Amino acid sequence: MALEIVWSKRAENGYDKILRHLEEEWTEREIRNFINETRQFLSLLEKNPHLLEPSQVRKNIYRGPMNRLTIVTYRVKPRIKLIELLNVRSSRQRPLRK
């Protein structure tokens, strides 16, 4: 059973920031690869909402790598069959506080 994925404003901004960086520093090929990797990850996530490591502190929050250079945080809302992407960020940024 696939769950619907929605993006928070913070996740959208983080994803856009990564795309802007790729546009400035890399080629169209890398941008296309990143977009395809994102689509593949989201397709997997729809079918396997518990794909990444669960938070030890918060219920139904998961965090981990989307690919080598991107970290994603999301919340699973099983009652309404929804996955909310909370944050998408580059793994090269300074670490988040726990």
Strand content: 25-35%
Q: Output the radius of gyration.
A: 14 Å
- As laid out across the biggest beta sheet, the strand order is 1-5-4-3-2
The end-to-end distance, rounded to whole angstroms, is: 31 Å
| Major beta sheet summary | 5 strands, mixed
Please describe what this structure looks like.
The protein has helices at residues 9-25, 28-47; strands at residues 4-7, 53-54, 61-67, 70-77, 82-90. It is of the alpha+beta class and 98 residues long. It has one domain (4-89): RelE-like (YaeB-like fold, 2-Layer Sandwich), CATH 3.30.2310. The radius of gyration is 14 Å and the shape is globular.
Summarize this structure as a short list of keywords or feature phrases.
alpha+beta; 98 residues; YaeB-like fold; 5 strands; five-stranded mixed β-sheet; globular; 31% strand; 38% helix
Compose a concise summary of this entry.
Helix content is 38%, strand content 31%. The protein has 98 residues and is an alpha+beta fold.
What topology does this entry show?
Layout: E1 4-7, H1 9-25, H2 28-47, E2 53-54, E3 61-67, E4 70-77, E5 82-90
Parallel strand pairs: 1-5
Antiparallel strand pairs: 2-3, 3-4, 4-5
